[in-house]
Amino acid sequence: MLFVRIITILLAGGALLLSHLGVAQGIYYLDAPTSRGALAPGPAYIARVVDARAQRASVGSVSRGEMLLMPATFRAGVRATLQPFYDTYAPGQPGAVPLVLRLTGLEIAETLGHDETAVAGCTADLYAPQPDSTYRLVSHYANVHAQSNRRPFTDATKLHAANLGVLLLGVADAARSQAAWLPAGPAYPAAYVLAPTPHPEEQLPILRPATQPRPGIYHSVVEFWHNQPSEPGLPDVEKHPYLNTEWAGDSEVKLYRPLPTNKLEMVTDAWGFCDGQDYYVRRERSYYRLRRQGPGFVYYGQVGEDPQYRMAVNGRSFNNSLLMGSVLASASAPSLGRRALFTLHLLPGTVSLDQAPTLAETPGAASRPTHLFVYRPRGDKGPAVRIRLADDQPAQELAPGDYLTFEPASEQPLRVCLLPAAGPAVYLPITPTAEAPTYLECRAAASEPLRQVKDATGAAALNRLVK
Predict the structure, then answer these.
(1) What is the pLDDT of residues 319-334, one digit of tens each?
(2) Please, which residues bridge with residue 135 across strands?
(3) Helices (DSSP H) in 254-335: which residue ranges?
């Protein structure tokens, strides 16, 4: 079954505990970035931060217990937090060039296990003012940074402030290197540079429709961003189709590298690879094919490869039984080899379990999320359309053969909006519930371009899209 329920099992007093952990109304407020020391005043400095991220609701998620991921943000907002950081830690010298930083991506994540790690990815463009009041693009920045204090089972959330400080200070350091500036970067009017909205050309190369996949092995997510494998060439791949029904249509994929002895060794140290047609990401010793979904990628893997799920099933509790580990470790827990959908978080390069099998059904303890799916059949011709999944959500592109997913509040009315290239917006009012997923079909040229379909119809349509 494609769509399975996610449960979050909390004790009744969990909300009280979370209130002491910086959490309010389901949001975790991060500490502002910090640095051990400031840079010396430089010949250029970041005078203005523009938050041009496509996804501005949060800057990622933090783990507050083995099965609880919470959206995280800065209490004062991203721009209001980053500008004082640069003013304090990366000042300019007298007469320095005042740069505008367009922040196009910033996301944090946490990797769990024996050494919990804080990870952050950042993409940005830097612009210098010109005599004619335009701004010239002088530098691109794209990097990822991880930090762990290597103490067993340490809360990685505490590491984000320092980890972000290192990453963001790297932006300022790159901005000062005028010798490395683009020699003839394009110039744009102020309205373009200062607009707090993303521009199509600011997408990472891996997300651009015109990008042609280059075969080779990636050793970092940064290589994947730029479609530049550090080991170029057609890789040696071994595929074995799965025989059971649940994994029908998928294959077990292994990657090999030739040795001087003409033997092959299994590659278990790569981030992923490309076979010239599809992209694959590594999880432990296996590789899984990435599927484009909306503004990013997903893949189907084994639920047991998710460390949060694995720890929960093993019964290890968090902070004196915040989670009901004994329930999760019961015989009703599904097999670790169960097929499940994972999301690739593109900037930090981490993955998270999207749709976990039901671990247990305990009255008063388990709750199901509200799932909304908007899909577009492959046969619906025409270019991608823009869909806004709710009034407070950013518009996302939906191409034929693709789908979008959203988890709104249950029993709360909302409006899904189709934004055509020409003509008025098309709104569809709906009220999703947690009882079953809500499926909307989009046919851009139809007289009714957005319509709700029956559960069985929507589930079958989505099954066909992901095969």
Answers:
(1) 333 333 333 333 345 5
(2) 129, 188
(3) 307-313, 325-328
Residues near 5 by beta carbon (within 8 Å), at least 6 away in sequence = 355, 356, 357, 358, 368, 369
The pTM for the full model equals 0.67
Residue 75: DSSP 8-state: T
Q: Does position 341 have pLDDT exceeding 60, yes or no?
A: yes
User: In which order are the strands placed within the sheet that holds 291-293?
Assistant: 291-293, 296-302, 339-345, 350-355
Average pLDDT over residues 203-218: 92
In eight-state DSSP terms, residue 213 is P
Give the containing element (helix H, strand E) for 14: helix 14-19
Report CA-CA distances (Å) from 358 to 5, 201, 327, 338: 6, 41, 12, 11
Per-residue confidence (pLDDT) for residue 312, from 0 to 100: 63
Averaged pLDDT for residues 220-231: 95
Q: Going by C-beta distance under 8 Å and a sequence separation of 6 or more, which residues neighbour residue 198?
A: 52, 53, 54, 104
Structure token digits, residue 23: 């959490």
> What is the distance between the alpha carbons of residues 295 and 192, in angstroms, rounded to a whole number?
22
